[in-house]
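User: structure tokens for this one?
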Amino acid sequence: MRAAYVGTLTPGSTSLMRAERLRELTPEMSWVWVDTDSVLIKSERFWQSAAYRLKAGQAVRNLNSMVDQQIGTEPYDLVWVDKAIFLKPSTVERLRSLSRRIVHFTPDTAFANGRSRHFDKTLGQYDLLVTTKSFDVPEYLRLAGRDTVHLTTQGYDSDVHFPRSPEIDRRDEVVFVGLAEPDRENCLATLMEHGITVRLAGRDWDGFVRRWGRKNHLIYEGDGMFGASYAEALSRSWIGLGLLSKRFGELHTTRTFEIPACGAILATERNADTDRFFDEDEALFFSGYSELASRVLELFSAPTRDACRELAGKGRQRVTQDGRNNSNILSAVLADPRLCLGTSA
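Assistant:
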């Protein structure tokens, strides 16, 4: 059997983690990997910007040409497309024509920031549309014109997200890795104003770092912290922030499971998803940033770290018992009866 994975294959990316798990789960399949990010990385900054803002320009044209060339002409039993925001309708139609089954997966919202007119036009081409965003489902159904939606959760990678350090080596600090947003800046500023050390990595934090970088409570690790280095940072810290984007109605994210999987305490807002995933003794819930700071200080001011150890341990136990890893999530997608991968065409 032949299969193709079309998506970002940059080391440390969640997309590459999914590709690796899919290959492990389907030993009967011979996989062709097509790295869509390779074209964007090589493009001039102007064309990169045009691609992300407008889904147009030279980089997008080159990306589609590359996919068309590397996919070849031989038929496939399965084509898996990860985040098809740059794939033009003609490219998806060709993938459809070559494949017995075609799947689209994205861990992101498809219809808020970064919405793609190309993707909107191609939803009907897919046999299965996999989303982690429950609030996106009605729009998927409207644009696809039929029920091809598979709703799942975000997940962690068992080979990457696991505790590295003994508990005695964990630091009294809070870790956050992600894009800068005003609400996230408010959260980190509140923590530091209470004397709590924050270890931070991610893009667009330049202004925040200039304001806070000379103070003792901010450790900035740069634009990115991915893969094993991200898991290492969580493994050496007691608390990880599972902050949700306020640009759209996000209810959980990959951090929701990656943080406890690494043996750190998940600090998260309470909502319909997080309430379902964790009990009170399995995560550090908060409704405001002052409350979060108070709870962190209470944990760190205790003479021992027994409370931290218990909270972190129960959080990790919950995500492992509930099977929130990529292998389980992707196995459920492959087993969806709408794919019928075990039968001949």
